[in-house]
Design brief:
Layout: E1 2-4, E2 10-12, H1 19-36, E3 41-49, E4 55-63, H2 74-84, H3 87-102, E5 109-113, H4 116-120, H5 124-135, E6 142-146, H6 148-153, H7 155-167, E7 171-177, H8 184-190, E8 194-197, H9 210-224, E9 228-232, H10 237-245, E10 250-252, H11 262-272, H12 281-284
Parallel strand pairs: 4-5, 5-6, 6-7, 7-8, 8-9, 9-10
Antiparallel strand pairs: 1-2, 3-4, 3-10
Helix pairs in contact: 1-2, 3-5
This protein binds ligand C2E and magnesium ion (3 copies).
Length: 286
């Protein structure tokens, strides 16, 4: 492979030259054309109230059904988009689409994942306000999910940004709680409205298991600090029952529904909310 260097010099690499890097460059170019051609899609996973069994919220999750090239999962291309800056248009695409899709769904809350790079962008707050205005989506129904990596690197800025969003009426969730090093002190000072317990904490979650004590501790901690708790990755009735007993407010996972097109979520809301007994099997069993 041949590559033109910075000064126009030709550098020759051996074939092993990061196949990974070449692949990343390909994906980077494809993200660009994918955005132009409208290839990206947004799916929605239901979030269930642990006590009523009603669908109370939904998380927007980006999807990229590439024509011939096969599926890339978000973790693969989001990371590249973060490195190239393409996460900014990609993230705004998801936000706008999700506000339009979920807007008509009664008072369902909407959760949108936000990358650290977006959250760090000084223009982000204004862009979010603009999308809310354009789509007439009520700020009070929108939640932004952030992971702790960024928080630890820029605590002051993060706290300020979180305050500004909360002043606009949005809520902020700490995503993937339990996978990193968030200290109790940080949990207190950031002012999250929600925490989402990572699915890795639910592995081997059975009655009396070590996992159950860990999860119960995490739930108590968050609730003691006035945060609502969502568990994600709930796949079994046993997990759901344990989480509910431990005081978890909301449940999200394949047990209740995989991420799905908006039309399917709409159908699920139509039959699943209100009377539990008429909902889909997973809801009925709660
Ligand atoms: P996340 O925000 O923690 O989202 C939850 C992930 O867990 C989703 O994976 C979802 O499909 C998966 N999941 C939900 N329930 C279950 C379950 O019961 N079992 C299992 N095994 N998995 C479950 P997905 O859609 O592949 O997304 C992966 C990650 O990519 C997300 O993790 C989020 O960090 C990121 N991501 C997705 N969409 C966006 C986006 O629009 N913007 C940004 N910045 N990141 C996104
Ligand atoms: Mg999330
Ligand atoms: Mg998560
Ligand atoms: Mg994650």
């Amino acid at each position: 492979h041949v590559k033109t260097g910075k000064k126009g010099k030709i550098a020759v690499y051996d074939a092993a030259l990061d196949r990974g890097r070449l692949r990343r460059m390909e994906i980077e170019a494809e993200i660009g054309t994918g955005l132009d051609k409208g290839e990206f899609d947004v799916f929605y996973q239901p979030v269930i109230d642990a006590h009523s069994g009603q669908i109370v919220a939904t998380e927007a999750l980006i999807r990229w059904p590439r024509r011939a090239a096969g599926v890339l999962v978000p973790q693969q291309f989001i990371e590249i988009a973060e490195a190239t800056g393409q996460i900014h248009p990609l993230g705004m695409f998801v936000l706008e689409r999700a506000c339009r899709d979920v807007g008509p769904l009664g008072d369902l809350s909407l959760s949108v994942n936000v990358s650290p790079a977006q959250f760090r962008d000084p223009g982000f707050l204004r862009q979010v306000a603009h999308v809310l205005e354009q789509t007439r989506f009520p700020a009070g129904r929108l939640q932004l999910e952030i992971t702790e990596g960024y928080l630890l690197s820029q605590p002051e800025t993060a706290i300020r940004t979180i305050r500004s969003f909360k002043a606009m009426g949005l809520s902020i969730a700490l995503d993937d709680f339990g996978t990193g090093f968030t200290s109790i002190h940080y949990l207190r000072t950031y002012g999250f409205s929600h925490v989402k317990i990572d699915k890795s904490l639910l592995v081997d979650l059975g009655p009396g298991s070590k996992a159950s004590f860990l999860v119960a501790g995490a739930i108590n901690l968050a609730r003691g600090l006035d945060m609502e708790v969502t568990a994600e990755g709930v796949e079994t009735h046993e997990q759901a029952a344990l989480l509910r007993a431990a005081g978890c407010d909301r449940l999200q996972g394949f047990l209740f529904g995989r991420p799905m097109p908006i039309a399917d979520l709409r159908a699920m809301c139509a039959q699943g909310t209100g009377d539990l007994r008429q909902g889909p099997p997973a809801l009925r069993a709660l």
